[in-house]
Every structure is written in structure tokens, then in C-alpha cells.
Give the backbone structure.
Amino acid sequence: MTRPRPLSPEPFLPPLLLAAVAALLLTGCPEEGAVCTPGLAVCGEACVDLRGDAANCGACGNACGDGQTCQDGACGCRPGTESCGGACVATASDAAHCGACGNACAAGLVCETGVCREACSEGRQRCGDSCVDVLVDEGNCGACGNLCPDVQECHQGRCGYDLVAACYTNGQLVGIQAETNLLGPRRQFGSGVQALASWDGFVLAADATSSKLLQAAGGALGTVVEEDSLGGVAGSPNDILVDPPYVYVVDSVNNTLQVLKREGPAHGGGLGLRSVTQVNLGANTSPQAIAKWGTTLYVPLFGTGGSMFQFGNAVARVDISNPEQPRKVDTISLTGLDLKPFDGGTVLPLPYSAVASASGVYVALTNLNPYDGYKPNGPGMLAKIDPVSGAVSAIDLGAADCLNAGYVEAVGNQLVVACLGEAEYDEANGHSASAVRGSGLVLVKDDAPVAAYVLSAGCEPGAPGCRLSVASRFAVAEGAVYLADTNAGRVFVVAVEDGRLVERRGSSSPEAQGPALEACPVDSRRPVSNAIDVTALH
């Protein structure tokens, strides 16, 4: 699983990495007197999000009422409730407003799914005069009266977000509710998170600055409940694969695959992971991602310029039939593929992510020329590996729609590919993107591209206030792709249908339900905002 990386061992940085590197350089030390990262304000001794914190909505100390949430600095009724006489109530279960405001149930009756009844149905619990399912009810999550905060959902009796995005530039995590596409308050977390995963309601975050795997509960994103060492040496842990009871992490600087095992719960309430072993994949291999087929891990090897990429442009296979004694089996070369170079020029596969599906293992190829500024010099492509024979074939994603294929995920019987595109960066404006092409999504079915989505900021490049968008990694929830933007910090929402990509939140289609989500704020000191990763918790 891949994204533009903030750190790299390379003496030459591809354009797809420049925005992330700029984000790292620009973050630096805060201005004198400031203690919070951009987008957060100081309230007392805490850093809070005035746009999304119900206790400090729009201003410090301005608390929203019971049942309200804060969106864009204004209090309002949370999803699933409506205002009745100035109070936010759940008309599906409130006996005083059962089914509609003012429709009170008679004495002794209870309200269930908006209907007054004599008793609760089987599987529902009585809370006052309400009949609820405490496994999914946001107002009574796990127990009567336990109200989930802001836009969190109730999953199996625990409050949490549907998705979480990581803001590398700002050092924050932000939750997203899938049904409404509303954002929770941003929370400071870690110091250099660049990869996310989830397990059992917890967010796992690989932090490059501390070389640790950090954990937070899905409903308390600002609190680290467990941290596990990723080798103790400064590196670039840039992908996490959860395969219970194990977790695998690759590091592109230290060239390693690390195995951790759950033995929890740990002190503090985390998963209770411990490091089991580590496999060195070879000097200058720069492993990028992990996909699992049967008992074999497939790890794309990008390679390094210092070694002229002779140890990259390949996929390593690691046998994990015994996960506590993993063994590198072989390496599948990708250099024999027809990469369809533009004008016959130089191009290398430079693989960046992988996914296993019923049809085989698919590897996203950036198809760059590392000797000419890492520019795309061929269309974005996929390599398809037959796990049985090891045979490799290529899928052309089309240069008009896709350059620099960076991330691939299976959605049902289809594949979605994020194309990072070709971007030009303005050094005078903090290395923000000044022009972008070939960035967006491609839908692949039966090994052929069938639809494309062009990422658009909805403004003219160079216009005042226009911040272009550059695709990064994505997560899938409820049949939609949540695509991170590594330049302007947005999250785009695109529904995946049979043979179609339909924009839900963005600016490319008049049918969109609203603009892209402003997940990671941009400020005047940091014109680049790297929304680096997204993970789905449920």
C-alpha cells in the first residue's frame, strides 16, 4: 500500500515525493509562542480544533448542547437526530417525539424505530422509554446513555469513526463518518505518521520520526494507547499489513520486513503487540508495500538511484507459512515488461504498491525516468503476477488518464488504481503544485481499464487561492473510495459501481454532493498539506 513518502534514501527525489518532502521541511519548529500545529488552537493547555470540537466550537469554551456536534465552527444536531423545540432528539427512539417532533407516546409505551409500542422487540434493550440496539445506537452505545461524541458511529457497542485520515504536514489524525462524509475534530498525534492500518477498532500508525508503530482507539485519536518499536533506527516504515494475529511492516530505508504478533491486551488498552522477527530484503532494495496471497507475501522493490536500481524493479516473495520464521523465497523481475515508453525514451517500472485478488497479484508501476527528474515517461501500468507460475504480464492504464500509478486496491471483482500523476512544483511557494496532469483514479475490470476519474481542485492553476490536488493513497468504505490529496490536504469521495466511478464529494462533477473534504488544513506558513494516508476502521 503506497503513498508519496515524506522520507527517502534517494539522493534524487521523484516529483511524487517533493510535496511530501516540502511538507517535512516546512513543518519545522513552530513560531515563538505557538504550541499547536496548523488548524488547531490553544484553549487552556490543550490544542483543539475550533472547527470540529463540540466543547470549543468556533471559540474556546463555546460548548455545544447535548446531542449536538460541531461542524465548521457551528453547533448543530448530530446525524440521526433533529431539532425539536430547540433540543436535538432521535425521533426513532425518543418517546416524547416518536417518529416526529411532538408525537409523544402514551404513558407506559416505548418508542422503537419511530413507532410507539407496548414492549421492545427481541434484540433491543429498553433505555428509559426508548427501545434501542446498544450495539449500533449512537445515543446508547454499549450501555444506556452512552452517547457517541461528534460524528462517531456505534460499532459493536463501541464508539469510533468509520475512517481516519493522517495529515503528515500537520501531525494530526482526523475521523470521517462515511454515511454523511462529516469530519470529526482533528487531533495531534505522533510526529511523522506516514502509514495507517486498522485492527479491532484501533488505528495503527507507522511513525517515521520515532520508528514506532503507534496505536489509538478509533474514538480517541489524540491518545496513544500503545507504541511498539520498529527497529529503533531512523527509517521509513511505509506500509502496514494486518493479518491476525500478526502485523507486517516494511521499511524502505532499512530494507526490512518486520513481524509483530498480538499478545494483548497491553497496558493502556492497546492491542498488545510484540516484535517477533525481522527479515532483511537486501541492501538498496527499498521495499514499498505488502500484499498477501496464501502463505506468501509479495513486496514491491523500488530500488535506489545510488545502486542504479539494479536491486529494484522487482517483487520479492516471502514465505510466511510459519510467520515467526519468514523466509525470502525469490525475486520476480519486472524489467522484461513492455512499459510503452513515450518516444522510445528511458523508463523503469519502479513498483510502488501491490494487492492480491482472486485473479492474481497486481503491482502498480510508476513508470518513471529516474534519470530525468523522475518524470513519468510512459503510461501508468499494472503488472499482473500469476502466483502459481510466477509469470508476469502488463496492463496499460492509458496515458491520457493515468500517469505514475501509485496505489491499487481490490473493490469486489474490480481494481481501483490511484494515479499520482505528473506535477510541477513551485519552489517560491513552498513547493506546492503549480500544474498537475494524469492524476486521479482508474477502474480496472477483467484486466482492462473501464472508467477513469480525473482529480480536480475546481479552480484555475495560478488563480489566487487555488490549491491543486495530487492523488495519494486511499481507503474503501461502504462502496466508495476515500482518496487522499498530498498537496492540498483534501479527501475526495468517489463511489465504485459496476464499470463506473461516480464522484460523491469533489469538484469534477455537477452531480457531486459537495466539495472534497478539507481533512488536513493548509495555512499561510505551510502551503502544502500532505494528507498522506486513509484507513477504514469498519
Notes: The first strand starts at residue 41 and ends at 43. The first helix runs from residue 15 to 27. Residues 1-34 have pLDDT under 50 and may be disordered.
